[in-house]
Specification:
Helices cover 75% and strands 0% of the residues. The protein has 13 helices and no strands. The longest helix is centred in the middle third of the chain and has 46 residues. It starts with a helix and ends with a helix.
């Protein structure tokens, strides 16, 4: 019971966590399938508690709680299969599997209802320990249900293993843990099929066997959830590393940004009452702050480039060393008038060409110039202090 409760808590936590992700990206089909799977599995797991299932049956009729549990849980497994299929297969593969799996799931759900209706009303509250396992309808109920569980768990596990070939090295261990848990769940469901077949001739209960199977089921489901949480932990750590890196680079750009923003304050995007330093501490929007500062630095260099061409006419400003370019920028700012004539068109030149075509290359180039600016500023302060 304690292990079952722990698994339920993990399911609820995973559902809330992924639901928050879905709220941020509502059009993400994979997230929709995963959230649907977690929601249905959580609801089914809650119905797996005897007290809840008995209360539902008492409020309706015998057997309703058992059918509801199987329906909801099987639909959750169906959504999980479709999630892995959509994540690893081509669109046509996904559509084909969706049609086949939906048809199979519908047939199984109808079969469960038919077998429950065929069961005498006084026996519809049956369980794996019931002494009436030899009843054809009861036998069929458990064979159909557990047969589908074996299929769904194995299918999901195989798709999870296939996904490991496409996943990063950080995500692969969590997928293997999920696959191991899914195969474990398939084994426990197969064990139930064997147990049902054996009990047809031996109707006596075996509480020990049922307890072992139930415990192994919770352990295997726990392994699946551990895999999901490992994946989430990797995503969280990767995000935090990215935020910390951009925060550090945000402040490293400050010398260059301050100089250019002072010369061209109109280039500062969305200026607000919040001080720049305090704004940079908002980790929630750190990526946006960093890229905004990067763009503002580049725009400032473009605006200043005509004056750079005047102070260094024989210099390749696109390939200039950062320390030289920092000196040229200081000289260009001295040449630039305080108020520029808006009617004068000044030809821009390319400055500080990055070594690559991505944002990382752009950031490396501007960070090097900003570091050179910081060094020059420190040297200037030292010289001033020496004169004093």
């Amino acid at each position: 019971m304690i292990l079952h409760l722990l698994v339920t808590i993990m399911l609820i936590t995973g559902l809330v966590w992924k639901a928050v992700d879905l709220a941020r990206a509502p059009r993400d089909r994979l997230l929709r399938l995963l959230v649907a799977a977690l929601f249905l599995l959580t609801a089914g797991d809650l119905l797996g508690f005897p007290e809840i299932a008995d209360a539902l049956s008492a409020a309706t009729a015998d057997g309703v709680g058992k059918v509801a549990f199987n329906w909801i849980y099987m639909c959750g497994l169906g959504a999980l299969v479709l999630f892995f299929t959509a994540a690893t297969g081509a669109p046509e593969v996904y559509r084909r599997h969706r049609r086949l799996h939906t048809a199979l799931l519908a047939a199984v759900l109808v079969g469960l209802i038919m077998t429950m209706l065929a069961t005498p009303p006084e026996l519809r509250g049956h369980s794996l320990s019931t002494p009436h396992m030899a009843q054809p309808a009861i036998t069929a109920f458990y064979l159909i249900g557990n047969g589908y569980f074996v299929y769904a768990y194995i299918t999901s596990g195989l798709w999870a293993l296939r996904y490991t070939r496409m996943a990063s090295r950080h995500l692969a261990p969590s997928l293997r843990a999920m696959a191991g848990g899914l195969f474990g769940l398939a084994a426990t469901s197969a064990g139930r099929v064997v147990w049902v077949a054996l009990r047809i001739d031996s109707p006596g209960p075996c509480l020990f066997y049922e307890t072992v199977v139930r415990t192994l089921t919770d352990v295997a489901l726990g392994a699946v959830l551990v895999g999901i949480f490992l994946s989430g932990a990797v995503q969280l750590l990767t995000h935090l590393r990215s935020v910390i890196r951009h925060r550090r680079m945000y402040y490293q750009l400050t010398p260059l940004w301050t100089t250019l923003a002072t010369a061209y304050p109109e280039l500062v995007l969305n200026p607000g009452p919040t001080a720049p330093r305090r704004e940079g501490l908002r980790l929630r929007h750190m990526h946006a702050h960093f890229y905004r500062r990067l763009i503002e630095c580049r725009d400032g260099l473009v605006r200043l480039s005509p004056y750079l061409a005047r102070v260094a006419p024989d210099t390749d400003l696109a390939r200039c060393r950062p320390d030289q370019l920092a000196r040229h920028i200081i000289a260009a700012l001295e040449l630039k008038p305080v108020v520029e004539d808006p009617g004068t068109a000044l030809p821009a030149v390319f400055v500080a060409s990055p070594s690559g075509s991505d944002m990382n290359a752009e950031a490396r180039e501007l960070l090097a110039i900003s570091a050179a600016f910081a060094t020059l500023s420190e040297q200037s302060r030292d010289q001033t202090a020496g004169y004093l």
